[in-house]
Amino acid sequence: AQSVSQHNHHVILSEAASLELGCNYSYGGTVNLFWYVQYPGQHLQLLLKYFSGDPLVKGIKGFEAEFIKSKFSFNLRKPSVQWSDTAEYFCAVNSNNNNDMRFGAGTRLTVKP
Amino acid sequence: DAGITQSPRHKVTETGTPVTLRCHQTENHRYMYWYRQDPGHGLRLIHYSYGVKDTDKGEVSDGYSVSRSKTEDFLLTLESATSSQTSVYFCAIRKTAGQGNTEAFFGQGTRLTVV
After folding, report:
1. Sequence-separated (6 or more) residues with CB below 8 Å from residue A52
2. Which among B28, B62, B68 has a CA at the least distance from the CA of B48?
3. pLDDT tens sequence for chain A (113 residues)
4. Would you call A92 an interface residue with chain B, using a CB distance cutoff of 8 Å?
5. Which chain B residues are closer than 8 Å to A42 by Cβ?
């Protein structure tokens, strides 16, 4: 069955620490991968996306993610987090074979000033 | 922000009553989705539509029905609301899917409480 797994439920970091959030998927065929962010009380906003080409993609606000096909992973990274990065982060996957779009359970990031 | 409007934004209803949530878009996108967001579960897909009168079930479709009679509107109906359907509901739209994929844009959400 198609699924998306995010390993970390809650991550707490101090400002300037480096961030890596894990995302693994179970999908057949060619996949398209996304990371979304949800700030408290707001709707989801796109951070970055991967459709094809360079597996290292850069998004907004200094975030990047690397697609590793052999590991079925699309981990999100940021070298130095800020207090304003406190939010919930969702990985999402879609394949070219279907129309739906599935999300992971989310990772709540708390950045301490 | 993408032109997506969800209504109502908040609703409290009693168990056993029918409830309809509306998602309206001004982008003329083909694909529309309904998700529910619950702590520990992230976003789970309820139903989606890939065109007028074309809909399909998602992961958690039991107890929900949808209709899309116009490109711009996608309605989610809880036929007989239960407390387990207390959640935040998000509508999303996408221009394309499959090859030539694009990302989804989300509405502001509807907080539904079933008492």
Report:
1. none
2. B68
3. 678 999 889 999 999 999 999 999 998 778 889 999 999 988 899 999 998 899 999 999 999 999 999 999 999 999 999 999 999 999 999 887 777 889 999 999 999 98
4. yes
5. 108
Report the distance separating Cα A10 and Cα B3, nearest Å. 32
CA angle (A95, B100, A87) in 5-degree steps: 65
Q: What are phi and psi of B105, to 5 degrees?
A: -115, 140
What is the spatial distance between Cα B108 and Cα A22, in angstroms, rounded to a whole number? 26
What are the two backbone dihedrals, phi and then psi, of residue B77, each rounded to the nearest 5 degrees? Answer: -120, 130
Kindly report, residue by residue over A29-52, the tens digit of the pLDDT: 788 899 999 999 888 999 999 988
Write out the H or E segment, with its range, that includes residue B48.
strand B42-51
Asked if B107's CB is within 8 angstroms of A96's CB, the reply is no
State the amino acid at position A5 in one-letter form: S
Scored b (16 or more CB within 10 A) or e, A87-104 reads: bbbbbbbbbeebbbbbbb
